[in-house]
Amino acid sequence: MPKKHLSKKKRTVPRTRHSVVDEEGLCPTCGYFCATLLTCPRCGARVEKRISIRLIKIISVAGSLAGIILLWTAAHLKEPMLVNIEDIDEKMNGAYIRVAGKMVSYLEDTSRNSLRMKIDDGTGQISISAFNKLSQFKKIHKDRLPELGDQVEAAGSLSETQKFGIALFLPVPERFRIIKKLQLKSYHLADISPGLAGTLARISVFVSSYEKRKTKKGIILHSFILSDRTANISMVLFDSEMERIPGQARELLFTKGLELDMPVKITEYKGRLQASISDYSKIKMIRRLSSKEMDRITKAGKGYGTTGTPPVNSFDRITSADIGASYSFHAIIAEAREMGKGILLLLDDGKGRMEVVVWDSLREQIKDYGQIAIGIKISGVFQISEYKGKLQLKITRPETLHLEKKAE
């Protein structure tokens, strides 16, 4: 009986045939995902087509690099919010923002490899600091470094400290850019009028005198007289500012006889025009002057630095050496003749005669233009020029001209 039962049971058990899985990384017997394993953890079958470990490493590294590049690109291209300076307060401490405005201050500290700037967007001013970034900043921006008056934009982190107040820190120099460069206009000193106070300008001058003095309050002042062939102008620096002047700029200022190209800001103090250097790093030497040249230039511009007006001169003393210089004259209109787009006047100061053309374009700038006639007194500042080998006057400061009837 037992044998018959066993044989009968054996005949009733169906024969099964396992299907073979032929996919990489899967068990060929049960289909379980084995990845890089040699044997299936479920059924113990040997895995013939396991995934290559090298391929997994390559895919992992490539994916990581691609992710990093995408994140960097997104962070680099995303522009921080542009904020008006007047809207910045302590609640924004730590925020990453963007500001844009005019550069009103720029100071480099080479000893600390740092720089500090200040910009004005019309609503307020804010300091921008880049600690230990000066060399990197110069390497990135090279010959396109910012100057006073430039329209700039900067992105950085806001920080409020007791020492600096609310300031913007520039961690990445690439986040600074110049929107528009200011083209400084060059002026002869005699052409600088009170109306230019607060204006940035470029002048070509030499230091004709220097004096160090102490005020009654004990403040040390450094007084310079800057001269060109047209006039003189003063420049006064506090002792604290003198200490911050870079060595190269200091050497140029104190080397006698150097004609210098300077970017300056025109200021006015107690009715006197003054100049203050806007960026010491931009001072450049033009040429060396002889002692004779310096004496002649200083004499031509004598008085401008203290009075704000070129000295009074007479026509009989004018020579070709005065071409380009400006003087104050008092004369009478001896002749007046219309020509082209202006009026040719012959002026007589009692010691000589000189001609000047009053162009129609100056009509609105000369207060007493309607009184131009023979016999009228005229006074003001004129520049000496030359036309076809003949010396004549040129009106460069029409606002200084005054005309009145001759007393009977």
Characterization of this structure:
- Helices cover 18% and strands 37% of the residues.
- The protein is of the alpha+beta class.
- It folds into 4 domains: 21-78, no CATH class; 85-180, OB fold (Dihydrolipoamide Acetyltransferase, E2P); 189-300, Beta Barrel (OB fold (Dihydrolipoamide Acetyltransferase, E2P)), CATH 2.40.50.140; 312-405, Nucleic acid-binding proteins (OB fold (Dihydrolipoamide Acetyltransferase, E2P), Beta Barrel).
- A hairpin with a 4-residue loop joins strand 2 (114-120) and strand 3 (125-130).
Distance between the termini: 166 Å
CATH overall fold name of the largest domain: OB fold (Dihydrolipoamide Acetyltransferase, E2P)
Low-confidence stretches: 3-19, 302-307
What is the CATH homologous superfamily assignment of the largest domain? Nucleic acid-binding proteins
Multimeric status of the protein: single chain
The structural domain count equals 4
Structural class: alpha+beta
SSE order: HHEEEHEEEEEEHHEEEHHEEEEEE
The first-level CATH class of the largest domain is given as Mainly Beta
Shape: elongated
Specify the CATH architecture of the largest domain. Beta Barrel
**Mean pLDDT over the full residue set:** 81
- Major β-sheet, in short? 6 strands, antiparallel
Instruction: Give the fraction of residues assigned to helices.
Output: 10-25%
Strand elements, count: 18
In what range is the share of β-strand residues?
35-45%
Number of separate helices: 7
Radius of gyration: 40 Å
